[in-house]
Amino acid sequence: MTRGDDLASFLHKERPQALVDFTRPSEALHNALAAVAAGASPVVGTTGLSATDIDKIETACHEKKIGGIVAPNFAIGAVLMMHLAEIAAPHFDAAEIIELHHAAKLDAPSGTALSTARRLSARRGDKAFAHRKAEKETLAGTRGGEEGNVAVHSVRLPGFVADQEVILGLPGQTLTIAHRTTSREAYVPGVLLAIRKVTADARFYRGLDELLGLNLG
b/e map of 13-27 (b: 16 or more CB within 10 Å)? Predict the structure, then answer.
């Protein structure tokens, strides 16, 4: 298929078991719902979807009794990076995230960075991270965006694919958990795993970590 083709007609004609979507937030919801309507399990890696959008996809999957997944990142290493950062979160006073992507990426911060910040904050429970803001910010935005008292910094440059660092701090020490992507091949094992799972089981997943059995309880 090419841009502008009738996706719904294609899906009803070809009857695939799954549809993999890495497009734009403005198109991903429509594509996923068209897939579900045709009986194809949506495997969505497009970032920037709202919580409401994901709820709509999940509801459609349940009504059609098919599996589906929306994941901020399909790289297994990135998922483990987030999981390890969650384990560390209760033991540190502060955390910041630096995400680095190719110059053509449309959204900032990345879906992975935003998801990481929310998960770290949730892991802290009632004890929020400390986030020290500059008394004088001579360049607006220098301290990054903020989600749950976690500062998030976005870098967009040619040469990057998709990297992320989570830096956690205590007096006298820091811990950095980093994931580097050197090729888009990094996403293939996770996508294949997701396709196998959602076409075999009528379950909806919000992230690849559920498929890997990563659950902190």
Answer: eeeeebbbbeeeeee
- Please, what's the b/e burial string for 162-196 (b: 16 or more CB within 10 A of its CB; e: otherwise)? bbbbbbbbeeeeeeebebbbeeeebbeebbebbbe
Tokens of 12: 């009803």
115: left (phi over 0), alpha (psi -120 to 50) or beta: alpha
Element (H, E) at 167: strand 162-170
Q: Domains in the chain, start-ordered, CATH in brackets?
A: 7-73+184-210 (3.40.50.720), 76-179 (3.30.360.10)
List, for residues 148-189, the tens digit of each pLDDT value. 999 999 999 999 999 999 999 999 999 999 999 999 999 999
Question: And the tokens for 44?
Answer: 């969505």
What does the alpha-carbon distance between residue 104 and residue 120 come to, in Å, rounded to a whole number? 27
Say which amino acid occupies 121. Answer: S
Active site residues: 101, 105
Is the pTM higher than 0.70? The answer reads yes
pLDDT tens digits along 113-153: 999 999 999 999 999 999 988 888 899 889 999 999 999 99
Give the span between the Cα atoms of 128 and 168, in whole angstroms: 13
